[in-house]
């Protein structure tokens, strides 16, 4: 489980990276003529690491010298390694200077290799219950990969886990040492066994399991040169194992606690970067020129900017640079110049303008770019009509524009910043652009820190953090009947509006991105929110098939049932009236029938919302109960049976919902067009609707649902031994609760008693009142209060949790999920008692609902990768609260079910087990 206290250690293999950077980058020199290509590569890597990779602790590990304990074991160890190239030698010290300039600990120890120190620190991190990421692609470090320890290729920016190790060596990470001992290493002069290569070593390991078992069995092997070599060189194989084994008992000269990440000292970093001539990097990370090296020449590099990092010649604009001086781009040469400028800057904001709000149907009208505050452009693509400002403006063909932009969109050295990236990515990809990468999303950066505190729209963020009000959309398109499509906005006005969006997005990124680490939201953003952008976009593009004929039949069926209920309502009322009219219903209930409890609204009409009708129904009145049933069917008919038929995409034959990533306070996803979150789960009607969601021929739908996840989180965070024990034993949690609270045996328990315990269990999560529980169970509030009191008497830890959480919310304005997500509760100290009480219930529930959201998001991030590794071509279609829905070929359903269950149940480590229930069927109802 991730908490603020858990160690997430990042270790950079500094020595290994120096050589890779030196050979990967063209020659470069600093203003004083010193070679700096390896330093430049290392510095860029470190800056990117600090910006993009979440960690609580960080260190760069170096080799202290060439002689180590391995040379004492074997004097030929690394004896044939050549001296470093002449241009690389002066860069070793400069790389250490770079590490210090970024305020990152640099660690080395005489007599030990960097790899040994990495092994020792990784062990310390995992022994402390944390994780470790090793920034290196060195095969020698792959033996360290295990749960809690992974590697990351610093050049390709790809993780290296067990699957990658198996692909490299043909064995699991735990067997890498024995494989290396068999094959040796000519670069390090590790002898190994002659004649045995990687494939042979992997085959032997698969058959015998270990080096010792192979050597013990050698004498009994079939006569061969391989058998003879294994016997003759057994001692060398054992020595080789000593040489390649990384020592987890190596000294750790700096305590782990001293590696905690800290803010970069910009007063120290800026002058050092300028001294090196790395002005492009200064601009990228927002550091102004200091003037200390103003008269020195810049680094020289024969390669283009995208490869060598050639610095930008234009100065970085101040954060208060003026808005509005933007350029309209209408030819390829100008666009290529903007692309080069963006590549030199290393970061640019990108925004799209469309003719609709559905990214899967909207047409691309234009694209805007921003390379620094105040420096932005707009590329019109599909403006039309007599409202264009000038007939002389020629818009470029979309294909030409995307060809010019494609290199920028996929350039790994340039960060593309979006506001609501999922929308723009879907629009761009549909238009023919490659998938942009790497990306940042200012909406999600803000959401990861301030969910519930304010909305995450660009206009709101701009007012809050930039003190700037962007041009309203209504101002350029008009309103009401006078509104025109954006494609008919004249290009000059469109440029001012659209380019400002990109400009604002970039400025927001500069303000909000640095707050992630001090607000303890970096891991949440990097590990959950940002990776989900592409995953959810894929889910939206895939959609889900529906049976339109079944929906039409369902509409007729619901209409018939509504007519039957309506007839009963008219009989109970004594006359016919419009059941859908709140005004007429109020007159029937309170004027004609004289029911008590009615309240008039400001308009003078009687209030007849669902809470009023439910109160009347709870008091035994039949007519309001029937109206509630009628309304439920009417809503399901209009929202699903009728609307879904119209929402089927004619091109795909499927329904494509849109997942909202930054709406809820707790981190939960929501969906709209259509909203699939509100289909009743346990009612006959809900099941009927789910039957219309189908799998295509030869496929099934697979549902994977967390069982009672919020109750499990309650048992965990409130530390309730009885509940934890019940979950650990797999007991019926509601029966166990009833037994504990009402002091009766589980065996032979009355179902009504269990139902009451279930109502309390789930009600407690939402801060239920005695009145609410009483209404739910059909008992007086006083009796319900007795049940709640008995519950808290048996589980005082839950009351303590609730009080503690309310106090935390009052003090901080937010509560925190078990995984570090802040859920803001603005009304917690408000003057309005009703709102304040609601905020208190929100505060109690948010860590549980938010924790559940964090867990399923963790699973969603991992599942696509695990499916690819397993060779499964199933597709994740939907996420509805605690459930994931997949489409998979019938013959692969069992394998996918097992994989999804394993990933979801291991998504977090709690003090109670996570349990996932799976099911398959040709439709959603049968799978659920």
TrEMBL record:
Residues 292-306 have a biased composition (Low complexity). Keywords: DNA damage, DNA repair, DNA replication, DNA-binding, DNA-directed DNA polymerase, Exonuclease, Hydrolase, Nuclease, Nucleotidyltransferase, Transferase. The keyword Magnesium does not apply. Residues 326-517 form the 3'-5' exonuclease domain. GO terms for molecular function: 3'-5' exonuclease activity; 5'-3' exonuclease activity; DNA binding; DNA-directed DNA polymerase activity. InterPro entries: 3'-5'_exonuclease_dom, 5-3_exonucl_a-hlix_arch_N, 5-3_exonuclease, 5-3_exonuclease_C_sf, DNA-dir_DNA_pol_A_CS, DNA-dir_DNA_pol_A_palm_dom, DNA/RNA_pol_sf, DNA_polI_H3TH. GO terms for biological process: DNA-templated DNA replication; double-strand break repair. Residues 7-262 form the 5'-3' exonuclease domain. It comes from the Bacteria. It catalyses: DNA(n) + a 2'-deoxyribonucleoside 5'-triphosphate = DNA(n+1) + diphosphate. It is an enzyme of class 2 (transferase). Its EC number is 2.7.7.7. In addition to polymerase activity, this DNA polymerase exhibits 3'-5' and 5'-3' exonuclease activity. Single-chain monomer with multiple functions. PANTHER family: DNA POLYMERASE I, DNA POLYMERASE NU. This is DNA polymerase I.
């Amino acid at each position: 489980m991730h908490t603020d206290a858990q160690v997430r250690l990042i270790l950079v293999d500094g020595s290994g990276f120096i050589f890779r950077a030196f050979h990967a980058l063209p020659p470069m020199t600093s203003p004083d003529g010193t070679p700096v290509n390896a330093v430049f590569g290392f510095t860029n890597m470190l800056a990117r690491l600090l910006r993009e990779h979440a960690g609580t602790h960080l260190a760069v590990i170096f080799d202290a010298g060439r002689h180590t304990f391995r040379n004492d074991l074997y004097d030929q160890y690394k004896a044939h390694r050549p001296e470093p190239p002449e241009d690389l030698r002066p860069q070793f010290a400069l790389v250490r200077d770079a590490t210090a300039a970024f305020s990152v600990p640099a660690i080395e120890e005489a007599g030990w290799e960097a790899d040994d120190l990495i092994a020792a620190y990784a062990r310390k991190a995992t022994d402390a219950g944390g994780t470790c990421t090793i920034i290196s692609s060195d095969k020698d470090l792959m033996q360290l990969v295990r749960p809690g320890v992974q590697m990351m290729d610093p050049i390709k920016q790809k993780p290296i886990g067990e699957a990658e190790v198996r692909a490299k060596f043909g064995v699991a990470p735990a067997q890498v040492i024995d494989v290396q001992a068999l094959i040796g290493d000519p670069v390090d002069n590790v002898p190994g066994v002659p004649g045995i290569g990687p494939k042979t070593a992997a085959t032997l390991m698969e058959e015998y399991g270990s080096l010792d078992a192979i050597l013990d069995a050698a004498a009994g092997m079939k006569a061969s040169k391989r058998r003879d070599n294994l016997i003759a060189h057994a001692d060398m194989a054992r020595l080789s194992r000593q040489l390649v084994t990384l020592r987890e008992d190596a000294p750790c000269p700096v305590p782990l606690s001293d590696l905690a990440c800290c803010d970069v000292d910009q007063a120290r970093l800026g002058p050092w970067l300028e001294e090196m001539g790395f002005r492009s990097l200064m601009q990228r990370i927002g550091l102004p020129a200091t003037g200390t090296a103003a008269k020195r020449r810049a680094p020289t590099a024969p390669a283009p900017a995208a490869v060598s990092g050639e610095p930008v010649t234009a100065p970085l604009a101040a954060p208060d640079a003026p808005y509005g001086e933007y350029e309209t781009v209408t030819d390829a040469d100008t666009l290529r110049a903007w692309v080069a400028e963006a590549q030199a800057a290393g970061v640019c904001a990108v925004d799209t303008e469309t003719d609709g709000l559905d990214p899967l149907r909207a047409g691309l009208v234009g694209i805007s770019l921003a390379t620094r505050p105040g420096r932005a452009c707009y590329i019109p693509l599909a403006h039309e009509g007599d409202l264009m400002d000038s007939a002389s403006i020629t818009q470029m063909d979309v294909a030409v524009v995307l060809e010019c932009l494609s290199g920028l969109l996929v350039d790994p050295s340039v960060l593309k910043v979006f506001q609501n990236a999922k929308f723009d990515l879907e629009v761009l990809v549909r238009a023919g652009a490659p998938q942009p990468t790497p990306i940042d999303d200012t909406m999600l950066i803000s959401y990861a820190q301030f969910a519930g505190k304010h909305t995450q729209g660009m206009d709101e963020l701009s007012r809050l953090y930039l003190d700037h009000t962007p041009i309203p959309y209504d101002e350029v398109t008009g309103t009401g009947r006078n509104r025109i499509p954006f494609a008919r906005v004249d290009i000059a006005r469109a440029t001012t509006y659209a380019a400002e969006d990109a400009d604002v997005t970039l400025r927001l990124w500069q303000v909000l991105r640095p707050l992630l680490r001090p607000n303890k939201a970096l891991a949440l953003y990097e590990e959950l929110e940002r990776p989900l952008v592409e995953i959810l976009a894929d889910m939206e593009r895939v959609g889900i098939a529906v049976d339109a004929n079944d929906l039409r039949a369902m509409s007729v069926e619901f209409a018939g049932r509504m007519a039957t209920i309506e007839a009963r309502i008219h009989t109970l009322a004594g006359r016919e009236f419009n059941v859908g009219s709140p005004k007429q219903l109020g007159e029937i209930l309170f004027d004609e029938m004289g029911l008590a409890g009615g309240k008039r609204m400001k308009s003078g009409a009687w209030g007849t919302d669902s809470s009023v009708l439910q109160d009347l129904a709870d008091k035994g009145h039949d007519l309001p109960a029937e109206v509630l049933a009628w309304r439920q069917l009417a809503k399901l008919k209009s929202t699903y049976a009728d609307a879904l038929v119209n929402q089927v995409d004619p091109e795909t034959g499927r329904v494509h919902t849109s997942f909202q990533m930054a709406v809820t306070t707790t981190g939960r996803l929501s969906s709209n067009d259509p909203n699939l979150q509100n289909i009743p789960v346990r009612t006959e009607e809900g099941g009927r609707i789910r039957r219309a969601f189908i799998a295509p021929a030869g496929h099934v739908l697979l549902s994977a649902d967390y069982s009672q996840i919020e109750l499990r989180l309650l048992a965990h965070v409130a530390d309730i031994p009885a509940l934890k024990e019940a979950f650990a034993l797999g007991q019926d949690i509601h029966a166990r609760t009833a037994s504990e609270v009402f002091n009766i045996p589980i065996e032979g328990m009355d179902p009504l008693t269990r139902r009451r315990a279930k109502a309390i269990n789930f009600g407690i999560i939402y801060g239920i009142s005695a009145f609410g529980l009483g209404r739910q169970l059909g008992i007086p509030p006083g009796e319900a209060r007795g049940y709640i009191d008995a519950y808290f008497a048996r589980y005082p830890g839950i009351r303590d949790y609730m009080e503690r959480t309310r106090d935390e919310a009052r003090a901080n304005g937010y509560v925190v999920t078990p995984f570090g997500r802040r859920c803001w509760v603005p009304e917690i100290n408000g003057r309005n008692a009703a709102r304040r009480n609601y905020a208190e219930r929100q505060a109690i529930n948010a860590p549980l609902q938010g924790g559940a959201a964090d867990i399923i998001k963790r699973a969603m991030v991992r599942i696509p990768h695990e499916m690819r590794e397993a060779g499964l071509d199933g597709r994740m279609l939907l996420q509805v609260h605690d459930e994931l829905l997949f489409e998979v070929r019938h013959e692969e359903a069992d394998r996918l079910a097992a994989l999804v269950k394993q990933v979801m149940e291991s998504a977090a480590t709690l003090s109670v087990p996570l349990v996932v229930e799976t099911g398959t069927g040709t439709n959603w109802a049968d799978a659920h």
